[in-house]
Amino acid sequence: MTETELEELDVLLSSVEGVSASLPVDGLHGFLTALVMSGGKPRVEPILPWILKPMPGLPLDLEAVPQARRVGELVGKMMTRIDIELDDPEYLFAPMARVYPHRDEERSDGSVWCAGFLRGIAHAWDRWGPLCDAPDIQTLLWPVHQLAAAAREPALEVDQRFRHAVPNRPLSPTQCEALTDALPQTLEAIADRITEHEVRSAMAAMARGEETPAWQEDAPCPCGSGRGFSVCCGGSRVLH
Q1: Rounded CA Rg of the chain
Q2: Closest listed residue to residue 82, CA positions, set 125, 53, 116, 122
């Protein structure tokens, strides 16, 4: 996805006909990141109503609204880019944070991105629910919840069931920037825990004699070694 396409998407999100509210582009990036991290192969069409909220009584028709169709194309490109970046062991995945002037310097603010990420968790709760029960996941999600509570975007309201550890008072600009700057490491740690959870679940399923197409012998090992699962973590008691 090019910078030009990103700018185009930013404009389109706020101008699609028949839409009462839409996710801002950084919130959208967080939303899609949560979907990709949860596994599976999310399709664009079913998630568009979560991105573009139609006017009451007016279902969103992609074919009838060219702008919405173009948004769908660009959302697909963004999701593909996120998938590639998350899967690259040489790349530290970076959320899309806002930058604003503060006195004689600039500060970063990832609160809208984090609110979008929580909305993605809520949308994919059938997959995120078990992941959130994995060790340390809720602790690692703490800064995401802290930042999301500071977001002021009507389109990013999330069910209270998916909000935890909300601060008693608003974050200061310094606190917000510090948590935002640490988000890449936070997400890397969350991704590692998810991988460990998936490996352990797959190994337990294999031990019970269950067959799952996603874990055939020629599948790449989710630990990231580049080797086949059966000769890597699948053939050892030790997780890499």
Answers
A1: 19
A2: 116
